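Batch manifest, entry 17 of 40.
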Amino acid sequence: EVQLVESGGGWVQPGGSLRLSCAASGFTLSTYSMSWVRQAPGKGLEWVSTINNGAGSTTYADFVKGRFTISRDNAKNTLYLQMRSLRPEDTAVYYCAIGLPISLATMTRGQGTQVTVSS
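Output type: structure tokens
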């Protein structure tokens, strides 16, 4: 059974950092492209970042470039999102998802982890 379990969210002040983790089971994470998407209160799903399978090239939404870093640990079958210089507008539930962000709503994703950025 494919499972994705996110963790690492919480409350942080503007300018702070968090590292999100996504533990995968039931499949080998490195053989798939993996993405992070988020959903802010009252808004739809929004793509954040993708790491491609194989060589692991990465892409980012413009609003997180230079602040967020996606990575994976193949030995742990875990995906990460290091978030720095957090802003109030980064407040959202963050989900890891399998695949490329072609149709966000249909991507297999975990239960999400809440990130709240406020003073």
